[in-house]
Amino acid sequence: MKGCVFDIRHYSVHDGPGIRTAVFLKGCPLRCRWCHNPEGLEPEPVEVCRERPAGGKTIRLAETIGKLMTPAEVAEEVMKSRIFFEESGGGVTFTGGEPLMQVEFTEACMHLMETGNIHTTLDTCGYALPDVYNRIAARANLILFDLKHYDSGIHQRYTGVPSGPVLANLRASIEAGFPLIVRIPLIPGFNLSTDTLIRMAGILPATGWSGQVNLLPYHRIAMHKYEKLGLGYGMKDIRQPSAAEVEQAAEIFRERGFVVTTGG
Questions:
Q1: Helices 243-254 and 194-203: crossing angle, nearest 10°?
Q2: Whole domain around residue 213: which residue ranges?
Q3: What is the rounded average pLDDT of the residues 236-263?
């Protein structure tokens, strides 16, 4: 068995507890306008060509984004950082793209991590059939669950898919007692309004759960990736949230009993 991986990043501190290794899997069912990893959208390796000036000439450099790997090869790379996991309470985070697009491969990798007593985190958009979602979520030591909007029509307009399956898997996770951190991107013109955030906060207590919420302010750091891939960036005119707006958003969730972190 092989899966398609486009990056393995050691020493990450924003993808779960402690120092972690993040395994980025290719393929995603969403097309979020603000996606920070557009190189992970397509499920297969892709060839890109960059032009670079050198000595008065233009050199064209070909690059393949994505590599086919076996679960054993992924585990071997992850284990290089094992000492940092043990010292910091870290582990491995499967992200992307969307790990549930490669469910068999992700499950096989998680099995090897469990065998090696490595903490596993699933970073997911939550858009998957319930049996596919539960198959992986039940194995993870922690789930980082992206919640983007409560309104299905707005969600589909900005991400390409409705929010119904996402909300259903979120409710199922809470009811099953899966260890969970809900991550919410803060995006002007999409969900960064008091009314919208109050509605989103209301989704969570309605299921009987109160826990940790991580707010992620929108930024433009990924713009160069779109240029590299020859893609248009539809968010270039969207401003980044101010510090005051981020704090106001955090307070909405704090007032409702959530533990709130920002950034990451």
A1: 30
A2: 3-262
A3: 93
